[in-house]
Amino acid sequence: MKKILLFVFALVSCLSLYAQKEVGTTTIYPRLGMNWSKFTNDRIEQSNPTAHYDSKYRMGFVGGVEVQHQFDDFIAGSAGVLYSRQGADFEKMEDAELSFKTDNILVPVLIVATTKIGLDFKLGVQPEFMINSNADKILNKVNLSIPVGLAYEWNHIALDVRYNIGLTKVYKASDIDNTSKGSTFQLTIGYAFDI
């Protein structure tokens, strides 16, 4: 038991030696990664009342840049611009396949709670602007989401995991399922440049 406690103490001591961002530091993070997106509560109904096809996650690319500023020892602010390929796939139908593909510009604005061990907690708001789609006649061009995430930075390498919770309805028309919202998991890796 003593060995385990000594090991845990040594590990925590080593982690606390990692340099936390100094107050006033501004850092640029170019990021690349993948995301998995779909529309919540979305399904295609068939004439047979028991036949339906649910929305499922679609994989896409995400990349861009974010800037983070350290306001004090534990709070930072972040803003960025990311390109994201999103949308939704549907379960394979008997006679057709359906996928919504959207190219989006995301503008995350986040409050970041930083720690001495390089682990950050993120929460904010994110306007999403659709710039291209195979379904632009039925999908809204502007949406809003709440990004919630964790990030870990070590030796300038930054790993970031987020879940973007959609706030606005994805469909324009009220006769289409008007409760569907965006749902996106996002995983990126970046490199930190302090300026």
Explain the overall architecture.
The chain has 195 residues and is mainly beta. It is built from one helix and twelve strands. Strands 1, 2, 3, 4, 5, 6, 7, 8, 9, 10, 11 and 12 form a twelve-stranded antiparallel β-sheet that branches. The longest helix has 15 residues, at 2-16. The radius of gyration is 20 Å and the shape is elongated. It starts with a helix and ends with a strand. Mean pLDDT is 86; it is low at 11-18.
Question: Could you give the topology of this structure?
Answer:
Blueprint lengths: L1 H15 L9 E14 L3 E3 L6 E5 L1 E13 L4 E16 L8 E8 L2 E5 L5 E15 L8 E13 L2 E13 L11 E11 L1 E2 L1
Antiparallel strand pairs: 1-4, 1-11, 1-12, 2-3, 3-5, 4-5, 5-6, 5-7, 6-8, 7-8, 8-9, 9-10, 10-11
How helical, in percent, are the residues?
under 10%
Describe the main β-sheet briefly: 12 strands, antiparallel
Instruction: Give the distance, in angstroms, between the N- and C-terminal Cα atoms.
Output: 45 Å
> What is the overall shape?
elongated
Q: Poorly predicted ranges (pLDDT <50, ≥5 residues)?
A: 11-18
Rounded to the nearest angstrom, the radius of gyration is: 20 Å
Structural class, by secondary structure, is mainly beta
Mean pLDDT: 86
* Percentage of residues in strands: over 45%
Order of helices and strands: HEEEEEEEEEEEE
Count of helix runs:
1
- The strand count comes to 12
